[in-house]
Amino acid sequence: WNVHATKSLFIIEDHPAWPGAARKADEEVRFLGIHRETGAAREGVDTLDGLQKKIKGFSSSQQNALKPVAHACVALLGALTTHQESFLVLASEASVVVDIEGQQILEVTRCEMVPFAATSPSGDAASAIADIKHLLEQHFYLSREFDMTRRLQRRLLDRMEVPWSPEESMLAADERFVWNRQLVAPLWCQGVSPRWFAPVTQGFVQAREMPGRGRTPPLLVLLIARRSCRRVGTRYNCRGLDDEGEVGNWVETEQLVLVRGVVGQATSPLETGCLAFTQVRGSAPVFWEQPSAMSGITVSRGPELGAVAFEKHCRLVEAEYGEAVYVSLLSDKESKRDTEGALTVVLKEQFRMQEGLRLLHLDFHARLTGERSFECELNSLAEALETHVQRFGFLDTMALQISLQGRGKKVLFAQTASTAWTERTCCNASWLGDGCSTAAASDLRFVAIWNGAEVGLQRRVTHEA
Length: 465
What we know:
It contains eleven helices and 19 strands. The protein is α+β, with helices and mostly antiparallel strands. Helix 6 (303-321) crosses helix 7 (340-352).
């Protein structure tokens, strides 16, 4: 967008250099006006020439007016109030992480906080704004071309019911992974169209191109990790479970493999030649606290008092992903009896109280501190998961002629629970995601991934590894 700041108004319009924006004086352009004193917002339509005259008119009609300042930005993130001072939050710069035939995922690299007031921010507000800018300029992602808040299979299933439009991406986005929903609320509640906003997700995105070999075509491997915004905070201030059934550090990680050269009728290449695998992880789903790394763990509620919230958590998981297998990587070592050992006792009791739930406990550190090589020890860990992995399904968008009647099928879902996002969860997730390569040797379409968390568009494969 182009954001024009006069003394009394913010006026937001399509940037003239962007595709689809008005380029001629008599072409219509949509704009959003926000009053800087009251925060009142209103949309309008005018010609490009007419809008420019309006902007100059608003500026020249004000006493001691200054020339309007134009801020080019990638996205309008919303409006923020801190220390009773309000700011317009703009993502002014972003870098392209991956471009899939015109569909881009962008990482926010620079933000601007434009004050509503004509005066400079107070010291407290300026300090708070600096911290927020620092947060937003690291590992926040957005896309105008497709909804990256929802995993591929959910996008496909939802699109069968409601067609998706880039101008309504805020409406269709998965609320769990939209970090700027509260920022847009002051404008959205006034009836402002969702077209002006883009959902922003915290997490991690990385892409790698793989050249073709023999019968195997070129591949694009894409990793998207989405961190939930529902129970967030710094590591030692946000642990475990809350009364709504949410857990700290909840991350959904989707691994996508795009098979290059597949031609289909879908609007996106990700919908015609792609395979997908999804995992989630989170803090151990019990009520617990740990003030620092050097302190012990306090279980603030036992299994009986935490049972209702724990059941809510399990129902949330099942509603989104289907039947689940939970994997705990907490340590049983005597030296950690007062920390992870205490969590393990409560976690096992919590699962014992709930019928139909399965908890697989794997002491990661105990398995990887033996005399054998790291690879051998990791393989032994993999063997413990093998029987469960055999039940995995996966999403294959090249076989979408398969009916969508699989919603009720039982599938495997792995929640790796530990005290922190450490090498334990990384290695476990890496092994689960990497295992597909050996299962794929005989069929090109199976070259990518097991999909351990999806329902609906599934196929099964016999693992010969």
